[in-house]
Design goal:
Number of helices: 25
Helix content: 25-40%
Distance between the termini: 133 Å
Number of domains: 3
Low-confidence stretches: 1-9, 583-596
CATH superfamily of the largest domain: DD-peptidase/beta-lactamase superfamily
CATH topology of the largest domain: Beta-lactamase
Radius of gyration: 39 Å
Largest sheet: 5 strands, mixed
CATH class of the largest domain: Alpha Beta
Shape: elongated
C-alpha cells in the first residue's frame, strides 16, 4: 500500500485502470448474488474464462484455419467474372459473299433454371444500372452474338444453323468446354466445322456491391473470334437454282426436291439445296418456340437434307452404272446391239420399254449409244441379264453407290445396292432374275442419294476420275480413278452427249446453244397415284465440262419435262459471260410431240 501511495495512486485507483466503471455498488451486487463463498466466485471466474476461450477458438478457426476459404467467399460476393462470348467465324461463299454473320447481343443466364435467353441492348443496360432487388447478379449478364443467315432458307441445308446445346451434347466429351446456354452448330457447315468457327470465350472481372450492381471493371480478357471460312459454293448460282426449283414444285404438284452442282475437275460443290427448307434465323433467337417445333413436326420434313440424306430409286440415271458394268465386264462392246421388241419376257413375267408403254412403238436394233440417247429399257434389261446382279453391284460400288462419298456435311446416307444376301435377310426370300432386270434400269430395291448420282455423272464428265465432293475450299482429292479404260468411258460420254440433242430424251436442250451431256430419269416408287420421281443429271460444256448438276423432283413426273429445264437454265446462267442480261424462262409442260421424245 505504501508503494502505491508513493507512486501517486489512490487506494482504489488500480480498480478504475483495469476495470473501467468499477464501483463498490457493483461489488456489493455481486456479493449479494453469490454470497461471500469463495467457490461461487471461483466458478464465475472459470465460466467466464471458458466462454472467452471458446470465443477465441472460434475466431482462430474462422480467421486462421478457414481464413483463405472465407476470404475467397467474400471476394466471390464482391468480385465476379462475366463471360464475353467469342463471335463465331464468318462464313463466305467462293466470291466473298457473306452467308453467315454475327450481330452483337446479350445473354441472361439463370443459374437456378440453368437456362439462358437473349435480351435486347436496352434490357441489358437497364440491368447493369438498376438490377432488380433479389434479381440476377451482374455476372449473369453476358456479352453474346446472334448468328444471322443472309440467304435464309436458300442455304439452310448447306450452311446449316446454330442452336442451344442440348443436355445430351453437354455430356459428350467433345463438348467439355461448353456450358448450358451455349450455341453450337447443329447442322450443315455450322456443325461440320464447329471447332473452326467457335473461337475462344473471353471474360471481364468486375466488382459489384451487395445488390449485384456493377461498381467497376477490374480486368478484361478479350475473346478470340472463330476462324472465318470460305466455301466452294456460288451464292448466285444457288439463288438461281432455288428460284427455278421453287417455281417448278407447285406446278407439277410436288412437295419436295433436291439440287446439286459441282465442278467435276475438283469436286468443289457449287450449289446444294433441298426443298422444302426452313429459315435458320428462327433458331438463332429462340424466341418463338412454336415455330421451331413446327419445323421438326411437319410431315414434309423440311429439316431433312434431301441432297445427301434422301434416298430414292434412281430410275434411268442408273443406266450409267449398267453401261460401265457391261463394258467393264467385257460382255458388251460398242457394236453389241439388242432388238427392241417393246416387251421382254422372263418366264411368265414381262418387262416393257417406256416408249412402248406410252405410245406402243419400238426402236428396232439398239446399241449402247442409241440406248443411252433414247433411254431404252429393253437394251439395259438385256445387259443386266447378261452381266448378272453381282457385276451390277460391283460396278455400283466402284462408283461409290451404296456407300458414302464423304462430303463435308453431316447426315450423309449410303443408299442401297441390294444383293441376294440382303434380300434373304430382309424379306426371307432369294434373289430372282427379274430383280436383276429391275436393278439394271434403276428400279426395284436399289436406292441412291442425289449426291451419288452427281458423283457417277462427274466420273464420266472428268473422263474416269471422281473427286471427293467438298464444300470448304481445299485441295482436290481423288476418290475414284483407274477403274475403266478411257475408250469405254469415252463411249458412254458420247452416248450422254446424244441425250440433249435432237432425238434424245432431254428435249428442252434441243435448242440450247452450248453442247451438253446428260441423262434423264423417271423413277417409279410405288406411289398409289402412279406418280414418278423426275431426275436429270448432266454436265456442260460437253467436251470441257465446268459444271455437273443433278436435279430430283419428288413425284414430279418425267425427268425430261420437269427436271431437265431447271438444269438447262442453271447451265445457261453459269456459262453465260453476261449473267445480268439473260431472259428467264418459265416452266411449260411438254407438248404431246415433245413427250414422244423424252422419258
Amino acid at each position: 500500500m505504501r508503494k502505491s501511495k508513493s507512486l501517486g495512486y489512490g487506494e482504489d485507483d488500480w480498480k478504475d485502470t483495469l476495470l473501467p466503471n468499477f464501483s463498490q455498488s457493483l461489488v456489493r451486487q455481486l456479493t449479494d448474488r453469490f454470497g461471500q463463498s469463495p467457490w461461487r466466485l471461483s466458478c464465475l471466474y472459470i465460466l467466464s474464462l471458458v466462454l472467452f476461450f471458446i470465443i477465441f477458438l472460434r475466431l482462430f478457426h474462422l480467421q486462421i484455419v478457414e481464413g483463405k476459404g472465407n476470404r475467397e467467399l467474400a471476394d466471390s460476393n464482391r468480385i465476379q467474372i462475366k463471360i464475353i462470348h467469342a463471335p463465331r467465324g464468318v462464313i463466305f461463299d467462293r466470291n466473298g459473299k457473306v452467308l453467315a454473320a454475327n450481330s452483337p447481343a446479350f445473354r441472361m443466364y439463370n443459374a437456378d433454371s440453368k437456362k439462358a435467353r437473349l435480351i435486347s441492348r436496352e434490357e441489358a443496360l437497364a440491368l447493369e444500372v438498376n438490377p432488380p432487388a433479389g434479381g440476377p447478379q451482374a455476372a449473369n449478364l453476358e456479352v453474346d452474338n446472334v448468328r444471322s443467315y443472309l440467304m435464309g432458307e436458300k442455304t439452310a441445308h448447306l450452311v446449316g444453323y446454330v442452336g442451344e446445346i442440348s443436355e445430351a451434347q453437354l455430356k459428350d466429351t467433345q463438348y467439355k468446354n461448353y456450358r448450358q446456354g451455349d450455341r453450337i452448330g447443329q447442322s450443315g457447315i455450322e456443325a461440320e466445322y464447329e471447332k473452326l468457327l467457335k473461337g475462344t470465350d473471353g471474360g471481364e472481372i468486375i466488382e459489384v456491391d451487395s445488390l449485384g450492381k456493377k461498381l467497376r471493371s477490374l480486368r478484361t480478357n478479350p475473346p478470340i473470334p472463330g476462324q472465318n471460312i470460305y466455301l466452294t459454293m456460288d451464292a448466285d448460282l444457288q439463288d438461281k437454282i432455288y428460284q427455278r426449283l421453287v417455281a417448278t414444285l407447285p406446278k407439277v404438284g410436288s412437295c419436295c426436291g433436291a439440287a446439286l452442282a459441282m465442278d467435276p475437275n475438283t469436286g468443289a460443290i457449287l450449289a446444294l439445296l433441298s426443298l422444302p427448307a426452313f429459315d435458320p434465323n428462327i433458331f438463332t433467337n429462340s424466341v418463338d418456340e412454336s415455330a421451331i417445333s413446327q419445323i421438326f413436326s411437319r410431315s414434309d420434313s423440311p429439316i431433312l437434307n434431301r441432297a445427301v440424306a434422301g434416298t430414292y430409286p434412281p430410275g434411268s440415271t442408273f443406266k450409267i452404272v449398267t453401261s460401265l458394268a457391261g463394258l467393264g465386264s467385257g460382255k458388251i462392246t460398242a457394236q453389241t446391239s439388242f432388238e427392241d421388241t417393246g416387251v421382254l419376257y422372263l418366264g411368265t413375267f414381262k418387262f416393257t420399254n417406256w416408249y412402248f408403254n406410252q405410245y406402243g412403238r419400238v426402236e428396232g436394233a439398239v446399241n449402247l449409244l442409241k440406248a443411252l440417247q433414247r433411254s431404252n429399257d429393253i437394251y439395259f434389261y438385256q445387259v443386266g441379264r447378261t452381266v448378272g446382279e453381282d457385276t451390277l453391284v460391283d460396278w455400283g460400288r466402284k462408283l461409290r453407290l451404296g456407300t458414302k462419298l464423304d462430303i463435308d456435311l453431316p447426315g450423309e446416307e449410303t443408299g442401297l445396292l441390294p444383293t441376294d444376301a440382303w434380300k434373304r435377310e430382309t424379306f426371307g426370300e432369294g434373289w430372282y432374275p427379274g430383280d436383276t432386270l429391275h436393278m439394271a434400269i434403276g428400279q426395284g430395291f436399289v436406292l441412291t442419294t442425289p449426291l451419288q448420282i452427281l458423283g457417277e455423272t462427274a466420273f464420266i464428265a472428268a473422263d474416269g476420275t471422281l473427286y471427293k465432293p467438298h464444300i470448304l475450299k481445299a485441295a482436290p482429292k481423288i476418290l475414284v480413278s483407274n477403274i475403266a479404260s478411257a475408250d469405254k468411258i469415252k463411249l458412254i460420254k458420247e452416248g450422254l452427249k446424244l441425250v440433249p440433242k435432237q432425238g434424245g430424251t432431254a428435249w428442252p436442250f434441243f435448242t440450247f446453244p452450248i453442247p451438253t451431256a446428260g441423262k434423264t430419269g423417271t423413277a417409279e416408287f410405288g406411289d398409289p397415284k402412279d406418280r414418278t420421281h423426275a431426275w436429270y443429271t448432266g454436265f456442260a460444256p460437253a467436251d470441257e465440262p465446268k459444271i455437273v448438276m443433278t436435279i430430283l423432283v419428288e413425284g414430279g413426273g418425267e425427268g425430261s419435262s420437269v427436271a431437265s429445264p431447271i438444269v438447262k437454265e442453271a447451265f445457261r446462267w453459269y456459262l453465260s459471260p453476261d449473267k445480268n442480261n439473260l431472259i428467264k424462262d418459265i416452266y411449260v409442260p411438254a407438248s404431246e410431240s415433245a413427250r414422244t421424245l423424252g422419258e
